[in-house]
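INFO batch 0412 | record 1 of 1 | parsing
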Amino acid sequence: MLAINLIGGSAVIGSYIWGFAGRPGAADLLWGGVPASIRPFYTAGMLLAAAGYFAFSYFLVFRIGPIQTTIFRRFDARLYPLLYAGILLPSALWMPATLWAADHPSQYSVWIVRGVLIVVALFSLGLLAALIGTRPRDPKWAHALSVTGVMAFCLQTVVLDAIVWGAAFGG
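INFO prediction complete | emitting tokens
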């Protein structure tokens, strides 16, 4: 889990640095057509999503035992690294894909970017389901915080990114 977070998180941050450093005006372009009137919701959502990420990651890295953990009595804790990879890998691809789509506008390029966001959203929802189905849930406060955190993360990745931003991008 730590390695996936370090490598995947570095890839996401690196893609943002690459995008902003290599593309003057990238910030405006990356709003993707989202109206200025709702952009403050994105700022709040990003902060909540980041806090949520730390909350559920804390629980998964430091509070569950990989051997005794089950998810819906069917899976074990090895599911979590797959879910993280399913979130982080496409998240690292979003910036390059978006800049590529801006340089090569077409329905195809727009749907590639939307597809990246849809994959992140689906894995985020998978993470939410897995956390809800995780047993044991000790300590209960950490589990509750992790579920709340992943809900905030899903608000960003599913609603604001995949649905709202996805609809505004290229539209």
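INFO post-check: Residues 2-168 form one domain.
INFO record closed
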